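We store chain and fold; example below:
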Amino acid sequence: MASSASSSSRGIAAIVGVGPKLGRSIARKFAHEGYTVAILARRLSRLAEEIAREEKAQVFAIRIDCSDSKSVRDAFEGVLSLGFVEVLVYNAYEPLSPTSFQHLRVETFQKSIAVSTVGAFHCAQQVMPGMVERGKGTILFTGCSASLNGFPGYSQLCCGKFALRALAQCLAREFQPQGVHIAHVIMDGVVGPPRRKTTSVGEQSSGEGDEGTMDPDALAQTYWHLHVQDRTAWTQELDLRSSNARFF
């Protein structure tokens, strides 16, 4: 685990599935807004140290395998030891290449669904009791174009993302009356690098060659907006795309 020496007056924001693009930007945004952030990923990197240093926030890195229920329980034992988890962002997915259905191995199919949906189920179960008890909390699930449409060669991804969308709808209808905001965010396009990406501490350069891709820092602003929405006007689902991206 890595953290700065500063403390947070807010709860814990647990970001599951953190890489160099969207996950990193979401973690940085919540750290910037004063949250203690738990970064959960299969492969730990120096992102926690970088964000803690840049935002002068507490940021913890915890290893997790979202396809393994025991790994999820062990990881959240560490997260919950930090305090009340007020925000859960589930951003995990299984990287894959297009595969003809005739050549798709059942193990690959099951692994993709385990990461896309079963892992989300386990993570939500870990934090939901505390949110219900306090009558507040936010759970945000990251979807994609495959949440709405089937694509040839991507049956393993589409089935997992379809199910994740259904899970988000079921949880919203069950728990939003108890004060827990659940939303499904559809990335209808390709997430690129930040338009202004940090190359080293205190130094920034403009991103180039990102035409048509979505800026993860801008996307992170939307995740934050969902979290702070007034409960009389909660969003349950929205889709995001670049202004010059073609519709699928």
